[in-house]
Amino acid sequence: xxxxxxxxxxxxxxxxxxxxxxxxxxxxxxxxxxxxxxxxxxxxxxxxxxxxxxxxxxxxxxxxxxxxxxxxxxxxxxxxxxxxxxxxxxxxxxxxxxxxxxxxxxxxxxxxxxxxxxxxxxxxxxxxxxxxxxxxxxxxxxxxxxxxxxxxxxxxxxxxxxxxxxxxxxxxxxxxxxxxxxxxxxxxxxxxxxxxxxxxxxxxxxxxxxxxxxxxxxxxxxxxxxxxxxxxxxxxxxxxxxxxxxxxxxxxxxxxxxxxxxxxxxxxxxxxxxxxxxxxxxxxxxxxxxxxxxxxxxxxxxxxxxxxxxxxxxxxx
Length: 317
Description:
alpha/beta; seven-stranded mixed beta sheet; 15 helices; 9 strands; globular; P-loop_NTPase; ParA family protein; DNA_Partitioning_ATPase
């Protein structure tokens, strides 16, 4: 069974999408895992970072984005096909054509990133999601659409990483519904951490009301600036903030991950699909930040997440 992880923060600009994409690249090309990225954010940043504008426009024109899945249910059309919608061999680190990937034997150990693209049309869909229950004679919850139509494909992957929009609406709830865990990327400042109690409370309510299995994997600090007194103080305040946020939920306070992702130019440039890169280190930066090359922070984060998931599976968490 794959590990299904949602990435969420109610504040934009906290490197939520950047973290999702880098982890997808790390698991795929440095760990040889098969990764599916589901882009639920109408800003489509994860989609564009992984397949570029041309392939995204082709998917949108063919009716093969997540927005079209919801629009089919709302309009009675039948454009969306999950098999056709998933873009195989995504990421500019991929060197194997998609048609070759599909022909490789099942026992060949290789990593790859696939992506289920988003669309700006999701903005319009969000306000109409409640109508899905009415149009399906209440046979389908508006929170279970992705699970119903895309969930059966998850067993092909080792990781499913879900980039959620910065809200707790029905689109986001589709991601939470199918996730085992959620991770909160945050800058260590007041504005970025302000929504953590709302996230913890809402997901706890959904878990109880919907009998979901989702649990908090932790909080990862992003865009850290070692010369910022605000960031240093924010790091000191974060444990108490997190404890208060989860105090009245049904789960223990999750950890603050030891890996702290620094603010780097390379992480921003890594989101440009059209930029030519030779390998993982050049994409995520070989310059030193905080005592080590920038790209190594992604490796550290992936290793820490693997450790947390492994400890949970063995009961050592």
